[in-house]
Amino acid sequence: MESEGQSRAETSRSSERRPRVRRNVTAAIAQDICADRYPSGSPLPRENDLCELYGVSRTVIRESLKVLESKGLVRGKPRVGTTVCDRDEWNILDAEVLDWMGPYIKDFDLLGCILEARRTIEPAAAEYAAERASAQEIADLDKAWRQMRDSAGEPESFTDADVMFHTVLLTASHNQVFRRLSSAIHAALKYALHASNIAVENREDAVLVHGQLVEALRMRDKTGARECANRMLDLAVRDLAAAEKVIGRTK
């Protein structure tokens, strides 16, 4: 009985280790791709060479390449090998892809692209939410705003609350496309807001305008809601400039 229990424990420990190893190797290969060690259009080294480079088995390399292919970073073909895909094919809204791109994100101009997308979507979503949001959704927005207010001095907590606010806002528009977008851009929005929030010293303006948007929704003021969304995005432009300076200094 003891040996069976020991065997199960060893199997459990082994199964816990394998995914962790795979994720680390996957991230290492992905970050090398993002750093242009393996440029777009170029072939990756052969499996045996990758095993030697990253110090793992062929099984781990194959699992890692499957993950990278599912996220659009590489493409494997029989008798050809694995090739790095063009950046336009990468799933840049994937949370892991964003993490891998992190140190090089300024090279991708991704923060600016996210802001452009928000400029298009959020004012309309705010206007629709003023008309369609349920009492519970407004309460959820108010809760997220209060968390922002109470954690203005803590960038990590502030960002979590900020992301929740914008996610609920898109959902509260009761537009099915916007609802889908809220889940799709969640990871990208978190990265963009975090970059902005750690770059600015004073978040009082952001707290104020988010609170005013909640009040506009309570009053069912569509024009006021759209105006608040546009003002939030004006602040985002300012904060993005600050974030890019920080990224430039730390790169």
From TrEMBL:
Gene3D superfamilies: GntR ligand-binding domain-like (1.20.120.530), Winged helix-like DNA-binding domain superfamily/Winged helix DNA-binding domain (1.10.10.10). The keyword Iron does not apply. Residues 1-21 are annotated as: Disordered. Residues 19-87 form the HTH gntR-type domain. Residues 1-18 have a biased composition (Basic and acidic residues). InterPro entries: GntR_C, TF_FadR/GntR_C, Tscrpt_reg_HTH_GntR, WH-like_DNA-bd_sf, WH_DNA-bd_sf. The keyword Transcription applies. This is GntR family transcriptional regulator. SMART domains: FCD, HTH_GNTR. Coiled coil: none annotated. Keywords: DNA-binding, Transcription, Transcription regulation. GO terms for molecular function: DNA binding; DNA-binding transcription factor activity. PROSITE patterns: HTH_GNTR.
